[in-house]
Amino acid sequence: MKKFLGAEGVVPDRAPAEPPSEAPDEGLPQEPARQPSDPLDQNIARARARLTVDREGRRYAESADLQAELSALDGGGRRKAADELLADALLCTPSTELRRQLAERLLHRGERARAKGLLVRLVDDGPEESVHAAFALTALGEIAELEGDVDEALRCYERVLALDISLPQPKARARRLRAGQERKEGASERAALARFLGTRAAGARYAVVDEIGRGGAATVFRARDRRVLRDVALKIFHPRGNREERKKRLVEEARIAGSFDHPHVVPVLDLDEERDLLVMVLCDGGSLQRSIQQQGKLRTASAVELGAVLLRTLADIHDAGQLHLDIKPSNLLFHEGQLMVCDFGTAGLKELGAAAGTRAYMAPEQLGFLAAPVGPQADLWAAGLVVAEAIEGRLPHRGSVELPTLAIGPRRRALERVLSMLTSVELTQRPLSGRTAAELLLEAGALPQGDLEGTQLATHVEMLARREGEEALARLKSHPLVSALRPPT
Ligand SMILES: Nc1ncnc2c1ncn2[C@@H]1O[C@H](COP(=O)(O)OP(=O)(O)O)[C@@H](O)[C@H]1O
Ligand SMILES: [Mg+2]
Question: What is the pTM of this model?
Fold first, then answer.
């Protein structure tokens, strides 16, 4: 069956033409008595006369002459007039073929409401007209889909398949709709189950509202603290492995996360070892992973700004003698527009002497590929990958970072340079601290986009440095981003 629906329907102001049961001459619109000047108008008038005045009209409606007339009108850009002539013919001769023809034409023009009446009639025309009934039911199903009535659409497709099980189009559409419904039912069942389990685990103090995230170790729920009357995030650990071990890890995670009083670290509010749960401030803006998924990629300026905040926060975490070791987009949340680092689970494991993390973001020394102690630079490695992922919408290949979606020029070269330094296998190539890295990243992001401005800027700063003396010139030359200003020779 061919595709017969237009993209958008226009509800017509006239009701669909309904053929009279008897008296073929009744109910026809009366043409005003005028002398048509367009030859096509003359044709219409002649054709109408044969339909209405001539008692032989029945034959004319089913003749090749009528079809020729319709083609001529279509060819002359008078599709609507052709539809009206066809409606008149149908009024005189209630034939299934003409009804289908008119329905197809109206659907093609997007006159869904008017076509619907004809389609319903086609379905009622009886089993001997099952080809037309199948067409009509498929079209009615498509209309119901366009109108968002999935149940009605499914009913239509199932009725078509009862007429002819082999029709590919309604079969595929019915399968797709059924799968969608099952998915929806499955998701709401899962949500209900999660809520139930969460409610049981949370105890009397917290009223679980819904699940907001899930990681390898725990599920996080939005919940209402009944005592303090505020919404919180409840991290309930999966009941896996040894109970004592789990309790130790939970306490360790809570202590590390709770030791920070930092504007960019998710505050821990409480810990319940008996119930395996951690209570945190609820971050309302979702995760960076969700933002990247939703937007495809972030604006470069936002990614740079966010990267600088992350690197400075990591510097503070490192200064406090801790490592995070699981920096990745799903562990970076937004709260009131601010970036927040969460999930110190892996940091806790480090204290307990285990190696963990997320392989795609792990530095070579963390993966055991490099015989070097795991230190702050492992977090900088992961942060470099996160910024590259935010700019490009996907993780870069291991090796050196490339940002092919950015315009070629100083800014792109400098950002590639900074991110490649952060993710360099050589520890000596990586910046020593998050703070230095944040400065470099912000400088790179502030460079001009185009080569012309880059070259002008290079000439200008070189002139200034030369004026200051040899030392300033040497300092400028050794700056890691200066070479990015000019195109490579
Ligand atoms: N305080 C919070 N507010 C809002 N969402 C959170 C919060 N903490 C965690 N989440 C969501 O729950 C997910 C899992 O939490 P996380 O602490 O990373 O668990 P895991 O240790 O299992 O990885 C996170 O990726 C995030 O989407
Ligand atoms: Mg996590």
Answer: 0.65
